[in-house]
Amino acid sequence: MEVRNVLNDAVDLLEFRDRVIKASLNFGHLVVSTSLQCYIFSVKNWNTPLIFDLKEGTVSLILQAERHFLLVDGGGIYLYSYEGRLISSPKFPGMRPDILNGQTVSLSNDTLAVRDKSDEKVIYLFEPLSGKPLGDGKPLSHKIEIVEIALDQKGLTNERKIAFIDKNRDLYITSVKRFGKEQKIIKIGTMVHTLAWNDTCNILCGLQDTRFTVWYYPNAVYVDKDLLPKTLYEKDASEFSKNPQILSFVGSQVTIRRADGSLIHISVSPYPAILHEYINNLKWEDAIRLCRFVKVNMKLTFRKSLIWRGCVCGSMLLKFLNTN
Questions:
Q1: Which segments constitute the IFT80 second beta-propeller domain (predicted)?
Q2: What's the pTM?
Q3: I want to staple 148 with a disulfide (CB 3.0 to 4.6 A). Which of 70, 103, 157, 288 is the partner?
């Protein structure tokens, strides 16, 4: 396997004892599965990977989160740390690991979501560190079959959200932690074919009918549904042909695979992600300067902090934005 640094064009050649089956590069680590072993490389050092043996040489899926990664083979689902330590192996009745894929499994630092094959209206939620069901143990249920799921990657555990597309191609968002509360599933899009969360902040993108759409702040629906359209960015997506699939949303770049296998890269504005970071760190003065620089309506993202955190500085900022 050849690894090329696109910044300085340096090349590293990685050699393996057995045939490579699956590989995944994300969150500063390359995870490679061969027919007998799993290799974990740090992007800072390609010379000394961590290696452990696999029970089965039939790995069909690798998913990565910032703190750990997931392997799926014919025997089950296994979560490992980047030190090669087995963390947990979640199970549920009727689980079919042989047919799980990137559309029916999603992983974040604190949540694992798996769509049930025997009942495609159900999503099972687990705590990765223990492998136990999340919250009150009840799975997430929808009214019709679910075809794709995705967990957001950043923020507090209690605010973790899952987005999913159902058989009607409607896009919904809901919280993964309910603890007996009635689940509030809200529709935020229609005719959505594929989706992905950003890796550094909770911005969602998707291909919606003939448009590429970015939801800069999906949680706006929990404040006021009428605010959501003002957080959208849309552009024509007819160039992607039929049945494209979003592979990743890293930084400000989205990678899409077309039906013919070719890859297309789309760049989105970096400013909303920077604004998310300023809000999470309560850097209000920096946020004001960014709004003045960009000169667009970004008050919706701030409203999250005003309502959920009750920050006095935030109320002053909102007053400023309402007058500009």
A1: 1-271
A2: 0.84
A3: 103
